[in-house]
Amino acid sequence: MKRIGARRAAVLRSLLAVVAAAVVVVTAPVSAQAAPSPSSVEKDIDKQWNDLEPIIEQYNDVHGKLIKNQAQLKKLNDQLTPLQVQVDVALSSVRGIAADAYMQGAPNAFNAMVMSGSATGLTDRLMYLDQLARRQQEQIAGVTKLRDQYASAKADLGQLTQAIALRDADLSQRKKVIEVKINALQKLRIQAYGTAGQNDGPLRTGPCPVTYTNDKGGRAAQKACSLVGKPYVFGAEGPNAYDCSGLTKEAWASVGVSLEHYTKDQWNEGTPVTAGQLQPGDLVFYYPGSLHHMAIYIGGGMVVHAPHTGDFVRMATIDRGPIAGYRRPG
Asked: Which of 63, 261, 292, 293 is flagged as catalytic?
């Protein structure tokens, strides 16, 4: 019996040891998975944004063309209204001549002589009838010409309307794609910084512009500096928000130079300059080939740019990305 009791005690001690070990395992602190660092999230955002920004710039291009086409459409409508009135008046006049001819019969020399009773009267009557015939021909020719003009303008208007409709449908689809991607980017930023709207470092890192010049470029650079802190919104060109090409457009508009709201258009609107020739106000284009981001040079190797959604207009070093080239507006 003693041996059995000793065995039971040994087994019990072994069980207690196993349970104790299990408790230690279960109650031991579990190491939590490290949250992604802001720098890693920003790196991911930059990668996604480089894929997204070309779509945004294409949106700017399509939207600009849509606005121009709408203006042209209105212009054509304004031109067609008085043209239609002229057509209606001319047709009414021709219908009047035709009705007179139908009621009075076709003008001829015999009728004219009978009505006049004299050779002199016949000559005068024939001259009058000849003038009337020429006038009738002119009226008909004028109506034909007006009809041709109206038909041509109407055809152009139809083609323009169709083109606008296609652009509008394309624009609508692009906006949906952009909105989905932007929402995803914003969620990434919230994960990194929370909902307090934190910024990744100061927006203004020193004197802005770094180099002061009182020419157009210098004043454009000063305007860009005055917009530091404004939120980034794709497709925006002020006054409360900007995207990259909207910012440079606004900066140069302040000195009377008009630029299109599209990076590739602004690339073609300026004079090429080299890195050694850079002056405040010059435009800096990034990502050779796609040209999907740009900034304005403010001197001292610094630029002002609108980076991406969730961010703000800010100062940055000029080497923030692969540079495609430089242009000087004006």
From this structure: 292
Give me the amino acid identity at 51: D
| 261 annotated active-site | no
pLDDT in tens, 62-105: 888 888 877 877 777 777 777 677 777 766 766 665 555 545 54
* Highest-pLDDT range among 81-90, 104-113, 198-207, 256-265: 256-265
Known catalytic membership, residue 292: yes
Indicate the pTM of the whole model: 0.58
How far apart, in whole angstroms, are the C-alpha atoms of residue 28 and residue 189?
A: 33
Q: Report how far residue 53's alpha carbon sits from residue 28's, in angstroms, rounded to the nearest whole number.
A: 48
User: What gap in Å lies between CA 27 and CA 201, rounded to an integer?
Assistant: 41
How far is the C-alpha of 184 from the C-alpha of 28, rounded, in Å? Answer: 37
Q: Assign domain 216-328 one CATH number from 3.50.50.60, 1.10.760.10, 3.40.50.1110, 3.90.1720.10.
A: 3.90.1720.10
Q: Which of 261, 293, 305, 308 is catalytic?
A: 305
Average pLDDT for 273-299: 96
3-class DSSP assignment, residue 240: coil
The per-residue pLDDT for range 121-132, each reduced to its tens digit, is: 556 555 655 665
Residue 2: Cβ-neighbour burial (10 angstroms; 0-12, 13-18, 19+): exposed
Is 305 a known active-site residue? yes
- Annotated catalytic residue within 208, 225, 244, 308: 244
